[in-house]
Amino acid sequence: QVQLVESGGGLVQPGGSLRLSCATSGFALDYYSIGWFRQAPGKEREGVSSIRLTDGSTYYAESVKDRFTISRDNAKNTVYLQMNSLKPEDTSVYYCAAGITIPTIRPGRYDYWGQGTQVTVSS
Questions:
Q1: Can you tell me the distance from the alpha carbon of 41 to that of 54, in angstroms, rounded to the nearest whole number?
Q2: pLDDT per position as a tens digit, 46-102
Q3: Which residues contact 68 (CB under 8 A, 6 or more apart)?
Q4: Does position 39 have pLDDT exceeding 90, yes or no?
Q5: What is the distance of C-alpha 101 from the center of its chain?
Q6: Given pLDDT bands bounded at 50, 70 and 90, which one contains residue 28?
Q7: Alpha-carbon span 29 to 15, nearest angstrom
Q8: What whole-number distance in Å separates Cα of residue 83 and Cα of residue 107?
Q9: Are 4 and 97 in contact (CB under 8 A)?
């Protein structure tokens, strides 16, 4: 059974940092990518970043490039999203998802989703 569990969200001031974790289980690493998405109240789900577990290739949305870094620790079956220079507009529920795909932030390419973790950027 595929499971993804996000953690690491919280309240942070503008300009601050957070590291989100996505703990995965129940599937082999081959061919899978893990994507991070976010959704704010009243807005559509937005793709943030993605990483292919086999070779570590990545993809970032323009809105987070140079501020966010995605990485993986295959020995721990965990994917991380390091978020720096956070802005109020980064406030959302952040979800990780797994799919057999190249690194992409198209939600339809992902089959399994976590429950999400809240990130709030506010002074």
A1: 34
A2: 999 999 999 999 999 999 999 999 999 989 999 999 999 999 999 999 999 999 999
A3: 48, 49, 60, 81, 82, 83, 84
A4: yes
A5: 15
A6: confident
A7: 34
A8: 20
A9: yes
**Phi/psi at 17 (5° precision):** -130, 155
In which band, very low, low, confident or very high, does the pLDDT at 31 lie, cut at 50, 70 and 90? confident
- Residue 95 tokens read as 């979800």
Backbone angles phi, psi at 113, to 5 degrees: -130, 145
Q: Measuring CA to CA, which residue among 93, 82, 95 is closest to residue 36?
A: 95
Total length of the chain: 123
Residues paired with residue 25 on neighbouring β-strands, in sequence order: 3
Reading the block at residue 73, the tokens are 């620790």
